[in-house]
Specification:
Oligomer: single chain
Mean pLDDT: 82
Structural class: alpha+beta
Number of helices: 6
Largest sheet: 6 strands, mixed
Shape: elongated
Strand content: 35-45%
Helix content: 10-25%
Low-confidence stretches: 1-21, 23-47
Strand order of the largest sheet: 6-5-10-9-8-7
Number of strands: 12
Amino acid sequence: MRRVTRFDDQRNFITRREPKPEGVPPTLPLSIQFSPEVWTIHTYIPSPSSSDMSSSSPTEVVRSLLAHTSSLATLETLIAPNATYISLNYHNPTLQKILPYAGSHPTEGPLAIFNTFATVHKIWSQEAFEILSLFGSAGGEDVAVFGRFTYRSRTLGKASTSPFSIWAKVVEGKVTYMQFMEDTLDTTSTFKVGGGVGRYQVFEGQEEFEV
């Protein structure tokens, strides 16, 4: 079976199941293919091997990375071991108190990206993640991604819908640099307690703290 999901006018999920395409092995992992359209199709995609990705275009590499953020083994085939990851800003100690993965991660490779998305899914539930546009420079190594997501904090149940953008560089089939940006003022507000100024609760079981 495959699950097809769309949003209604209030941005609620509407899901139906369809038979799995013929010829697809049952053991293949599920991943997500995003579309500029309102429809988001969940289908079956095998994890790429190093040899597969070495001949892939930069845009295919980045698209595959975004579809496999929960698999460190797969990310290691897509990201150079000394790749640099910039998460939300270069250096902001105040933001880092709320989002510990924020900032620069020079030469930390796949683990920096894996740990970031693991933390994101630990503190938020993902209600939507849409790629609206993904393209690369003509014959070059640069890839740009633009989209939007809706995350709901697990501690307070508050939701945020934010645009996001990604700039990545792909050399010889592997990401060597990646920068991810979002509206952090809005996303961090999902952890803000009550109407007070600067009190947050990010992780479940964590005491409130001031920033």
